[in-house]
Every structure is written in C-alpha cells, then in structure tokens.
User: What shape does this take?
Amino acid sequence: QVQVVESGGGLVQIGASLRLTCTATGRLWDDYAMAWFREAPGKEREGLSCISSSGRVTIYKDSENLKGRFTISRGNTKNSMYLQMNSLQPEDTAMYYCATDRGSCLDQDFGYWGQGTQVTVSS
Assistant: This one.
C-alpha cells in the first residue's frame, strides 16, 4: 500500500509565498510520477504540474498561466516533492492535493492521493 501526505498549507496574505511538501511512503516504485492538483470551492479539480522519478517536469495545460509563480521540484528524499508558490493571490485559495503512481506523468490515472492541504489567501 502507498500513503501520500501533503503539508505546508496555511493562511497567508496576498503576495506571500508558501512551499508545499508531498511525501509518499509504503510499497513504492523505481519509475513513478508525482503531481500536484488543486480544487477550489465550487470549481473542478485542476491539474498543476507533475514530476517524474527521472526529474522531468510536466506542466498541465490547466495551469500554464501559473508557470511564473508555481514551481515543482523533487524533494530531498526519494518519493518526495515540493510546490513553491510565490505571489499568492486570492484565486489561489484551494485545497491542494498530491498524487502518485507508477509510470510517467503523461496519460496517467493516479491511484494514490493525499488528504490535501488547505491554502487560503486573504485580501
């Protein structure tokens, strides 16, 4: 079994930065993908970006406009990753989820999800 845990969310003011962390544990794989999604109240879940075990980054089409502010990177330990978010805006308020599974970032149907970490940007 695989467990996924996100951390690092919180309540911040406009323009602040946050770094989210995702860690996967359990029966993992050598070849895997880890991705960030977010879901705001009343909106559909939005794919942000994905990073593979080789370090290749895929920006999902939903979030191409976030490229300059959101950056995904591998963590310091295997099967961990970060999402650095800068210049946060109220529209970034959402529950942020991490997902992982075997394989690549493309054509991926992630089977393992965390519980989410809430990010709230106040005006």
